[in-house]
Specification:
The protein is α+β, with helices and mostly antiparallel strands. The chain is built from four helices and seven strands, in the order αβαβββαβαββ. 25% of the residues lie in helices and 31% in strands. The longest helix is centred in the C-terminal third of the chain and has 19 residues.
Length: 177
């Protein structure tokens, strides 16, 4: 299933989202100048399949012309209301937290950076969250990001929570329409 929302470029039509199994990832490299400070390369090479087999999250490979160009991992979570901006809270809903889809990991192959793949992955996650909201309840997409990638997520309409501004990874969230 392709959950992309509101993009019609020819390149999007060529993208394929495929659940991680035992695909060959030997040519995939998402390290920055050989460094894996976010642990994304190590995750996709050594941890993602086990993580998935334990039902902790599901990793999807993003393929373009059968070549792995990116990946993302999703799981279910919740967001505490106290960590949200007042205008983002649901009026009249007295819960302490709201159901959410966690965008756990997102990595783009170095050769395919700056081609909107990360944005397309975020759009796919929002589409998945919309689908889930109709079937099981899901009101937000949330993620934790390091300072270096926060501007990317803000450009993709995620809101930075002020509640965790002192932590090494910051909480960002976006309401599912």
């Amino acid at each position: 299933m392709l959950y992309l929302s509101a993009s019609t470029s020819a390149e999007v039509e060529q993208l394929k989202f495929e659940k991680l199994d035992r695909q060959d990832l030997s040519s995939f490299d998402c390290r920055d100048d050989g460094k894996d400070e976010q642990g994304l390369q190590e995750f996709i090479e050594k941890e993602a399949l086990n993580y998935q087999q334990e039902n902790l999250g599901v990793t999807y490979l993003i393929l373009l012309n059968e070549k792995v160009v990116a990946f993302l991992t999703v799981a279910m979570t919740s967001i505490f209301v106290e960590r949200m901006k007042e205008e983002e809270k649901l009026a009249g809903v007295p819960f302490e937290n709201y159901p959410a889809l966690l965008l756990g990991r997102l990595g783009v192959d170095n050769r395919f950076r700056h081609k909107q793949l990360g944005t397309k992955a975020c759009s796919w996650c929002l589409g998945l969250a919309r689908d889930l909201s109709k079937r099981i309840g899901c009101k937000y997409v949330v993620l934790h990001a390091r300072d270096a990638v926060i501007p990317f997520y803000i450009c993709n309409f995620f809101i930075l929570s002020e509640a965790e501004k002192e932590k090494p990874t910051k909480l960002l969230y976006r309401k599912v329409a």
